Amino acid sequence: MLLLITKSTWSQNQQSQKPPKLVVGIVVDQMRYDYLTRFYSRFDDGGFKRLINQGFIAKNHHINYVPTYTAPGHASLHTGTTPSNHGILGNFWFDNSLKRIISCIEDSTVTPVGTGSKDQLVSPRKIAVTTLADQNKLHTQQRAKTISIALKDRAAVLSGGHTADAAYWFRGKQQGAWITSSYYMQKLPPWVQKFNDSDHVDAYMNVWNTLYPIATYTASGPDQTKFDRGYRGKDKAVFPYNLNDLQEQNKFYDILRTTPFGNSLTVDFALEAIKGEALGKDRNTDFLLISFSSTDYIGHNFGVNSVEIEDTYLRLDRDLSRLLQSLDLLVGKEQYTLFLTADHGGSQVTNYLTSNSIPSGYFKEASFVNELVFFIQRTFGVSNGIHKVMNNNIYLNKNAFLEKNISLKNVWNQLANYILQQEGISTVITRKELLQNSYKEGFGSYAQQGFYPTRSGDLVFALDPAITAYAPTGSAHGTHYNYDTHIPLLFFGKGIRCGSTSDRTAITDVVPTIATLLKIAEPNGCTGNIIQGVIRE
To answer: What is the pTM for the complete model shown?
Structure first.
């Protein structure tokens, strides 16, 4: 049988085989999966609903390591591997050689660009492997562009990887501008300077009130509760919030971070980046990486059950609709591919759970550390046995024990047994166990995937599911439990099939899936798997 291929059919096939002109990677900071279902009926057709109904949704998508924080979330997503390989095991960690806490992106060899502040010395050099955007740059002989944008510096820096043309983050305080570091450039491009010189930021220093009548916010608790923190200078955490009146007591432009206007500002800047950098305008696939940070700040401040969170996601839905419409115009429908996910989820406020007779409680880390210090002193005669406890890692002062010829193995074992007896602790694993054993499930698996030998501690512990290490108001995250690990994953656009899966997928699976679509090599440390059914054949 002779198969006839017309010129039109051949042209269509060739067009479908071309990679997208632009890949847009979106992270919504602290977004639980159930926000999609909880707020779905109130979303417009052009935002989350468009992504869900016209794209591909992974309904059982999870983070597969601990701790579930911003930095490891962004690094794991974009490298396709866990902290055990890429090395970003937290936003901060204790450095054994420097004997101090360090930031995941601090770099004293660079200088700030766009600000006079000396606390903006950052770069991606601590990522131990390549990102997908790095691989795309290598594949295109550096011709493709990568622009990464977020209110948080670590979100922007870690998403873009080592070869990004630019990572921009928001400098609040009294400046209110988008900045970068000399790792990327020596001065801001004209389009960025023009944006900073405009009134974009000041326009948002207005009143935050609910988008719709407050009585319609039935997917959240009442407006006035004892479970949210609010802003300094306002007695009650209730709508409306006059940002102009509150800015001086809330670090001036920093207050925008803790409102949905921070997300709107991020979209404004991202759209200018598309135009200013001519993204998606040539044959090389460019990357635009966006992280919405305000959702995390608002969750920490008001809690996942607050009216503020519901209003934030209804407004974010509108911002997504605006972004998608602009991409259709600036890049072209079916010319870009987009994925949207989160870096972690968030817990219900413990006091809220308690008020509803649900088992819950708070973990007092300071008291816990004091008890460990006393135990070590009583048992081993060492008064300075602990350097630091953070990220649920215990960093021991090994030299203090070795100087007294005390076996570290004995210290680890006795300390682990003691910790397990403490209220609120569910599991403890020693460094030796993490190095020697292979955990396939449970906390051991999560801890092992989050363990980087030269940066992690000597013991790792987990709290009970009902126990939170946080303030009495607002929501937290960081655990291996479903409220922190179950996050959304949406694919949309060129090359993406309309559909869904309920199979369990991991944050590390996004990169190999997009790499397959682009027909490029996966990052050099990638350990994730291709999600079946996403790519349109």
So the answer is: 0.96
